[in-house]
Structure to design on (483 residues):
């Protein structure tokens, strides 16, 4: 059998992707029979300078980091440093959540398969100044969206907590631990965890949304959820470990087969046709045949860092894997489950059928990344109302407002314009009702309208406000009391 021309296969898939995204930088790794058979780069890592991607180019992989974190915790569970299925509070007594049941019974498996019921609270880590230890402490004051273990709710914050538990137990940083236990043994020498190190690399991508630049974001404060930056070549070494059941290419055991297999055991149901393990989606790849569809197990995870998109996947029963890294932001509906997934689909098609048969379908998954919504900028319906009010009338809405989990919001008045600030970020606050306001946050290439409702005390004075800072899986108001 002739070796497929994987470079041509990928080039054709990029060109055929619907809709096409011209000049997108793409890094691809392909594994067959448990070994890398191809790693290469396509397109521009920097469109302005015309510099090209190669197999060594660094891309942020976003939430594909989560599988590294779950694997790392599984290694320490093998070492008896912690337990995946015992209540966390038994080995880290400082672990506390606002729900007493979760506080006393939540396990690392609950955190890693997203079934605690805690609301995501993405605004807290995305907009706030809080380091991991501060976020861990504030966990005890954050409200739940649903009861403990009632529903799958994707939660970046709790992946940070899971990684931070290792820092508490060992006294080492998450970054040092993952370098010594995973990256080092695998020879992933190009991979970085520090955003500063990423920025210093001479072979890294810039982020884009469509044709426009979109600045990449530093995820240090939730590092275990999404901070890894890697190359196609290094990611091939990672997937090889997965296909070789926990062994490196030279036979060194990094993690036991049973412990690794547990990371892609189906623990929870996102409701999108896949199941979720510990940092992995578990779904079925479908091959259409004249005798009906055949299905094969596919383990995968997407990553949607700001200004990029990643697809990391492997077929544990077939010895195959495909990694696609891009510098194109893909959380909008036009590109969701189309790019870079279509590139991976074409590669798997060739691996499984020896041609582009167009009979292979990959499982889709629901949007899971940070602040994943299809929101549009709200209409400034009340800007004229706000500007028409006299300063004495609008001044009553100013002041400092505090929440034990989120910290402080400051509302101030400049002439007739109200603004609301949160630790260095500030937005205009537009009024469209007696005590109802709106401001708009830009994040992850999308605009998110945030409703603000003031409430009064028994004497009619402003006592506080509630802000709609939780945007998924349902809208939730977070109360802030006036100081």
């Amino acid at each position: 059998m002739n070796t497929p021309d994987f470079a041509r296969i990928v080039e054709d898939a990029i060109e055929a992707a619907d809709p096409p995204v011209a000049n997108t930088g793409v890094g691809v790794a392909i594994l067959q029979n448990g070994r890398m058979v191809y790693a290469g780069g396509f397109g521009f890592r920097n469109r302005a300078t015309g510099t090209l991607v190669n197999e060594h180019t660094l891309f942020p992989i976003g939430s594909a980091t989560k599988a590294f974190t779950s694997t790392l915790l599984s290694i320490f569970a093998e070492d008896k440093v912690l337990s995946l299925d015992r209540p966390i509070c038994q080995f880290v007594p400082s672990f506390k959540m606002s729900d007493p049941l979760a506080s006393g019974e939540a396990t690392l498996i609950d955190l890693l398969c997203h079934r605690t019921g805690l609301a995501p609270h993405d605004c807290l880590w995305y907009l706030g100044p809080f380091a991991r230890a501060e976020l861990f402490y504030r966990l005890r004051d954050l409200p739940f969206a649903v009861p403990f273990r009632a529903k799958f709710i994707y939660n970046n914050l709790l992946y940070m907590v899971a990684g931070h538990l290792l820092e508490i137990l060992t006294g080492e940083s998450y970054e040092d631990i993952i370098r010594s236990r995973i990256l080092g043994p695998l020879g992933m020498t190009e991979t970085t965890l520090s955003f500063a190190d990423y920025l210093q690399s001479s072979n890294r991508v810039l982020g884009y949304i469509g044709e426009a630049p979109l600045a990449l974001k530093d995820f240090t404060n939730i590092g275990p959820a999404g901070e890894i930056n890697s190359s196609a070549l290094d990611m091939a070494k990672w997937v090889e470990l997965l296909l070789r059941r926990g062994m490196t290419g030279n036979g060194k055991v990094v993690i036991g087969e049973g412990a690794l297999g547990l990371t892609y055991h189906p623990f929870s149901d996102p409701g999108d046709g896949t199941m979720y393990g510990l940092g992995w989606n578990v779904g079925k790849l479908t091959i259409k045949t004249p005798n009906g569809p055949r299905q094969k197990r596919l383990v995968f995870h997407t990553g949607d860092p700001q200004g990029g998109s990643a697809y990391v996947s492997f077929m544990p029963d077939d010895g195959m894997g495909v990694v696609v890294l891009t510098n194109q932001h893909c959380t909008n509906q036009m590109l969701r489950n189309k790019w870079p997934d279509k590139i991976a689909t074409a590669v798997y098609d060739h691996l499984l059928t020896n041609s582009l048969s167009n009979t292979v379908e990959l499982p889709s998954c629901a949007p899971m990344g940070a602040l994943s919504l299809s929101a549009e900028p709200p209409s400034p319906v009340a800007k004229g109302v706000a500007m028409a009010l006299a300063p004495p009338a609008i001044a009553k809405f100013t002041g400092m407002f505090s929440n034990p989990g989120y910290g402080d919001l400051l509302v101030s008045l400049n002439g007739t314009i109200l603004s609301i600030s949160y630790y260095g970020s500030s937005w205009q606050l537009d009024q469209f009702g007696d005590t109802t306001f709106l401001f708009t946050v830009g994040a992850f290439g999308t605009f998110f309208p945030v409703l603000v409702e003031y409430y009064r005390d028994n004497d009619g004075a402003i006592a506080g406000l509630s802000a709609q800072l939780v945007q998924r899986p349902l809208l939730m108001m977070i109360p802030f009391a006036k100081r």
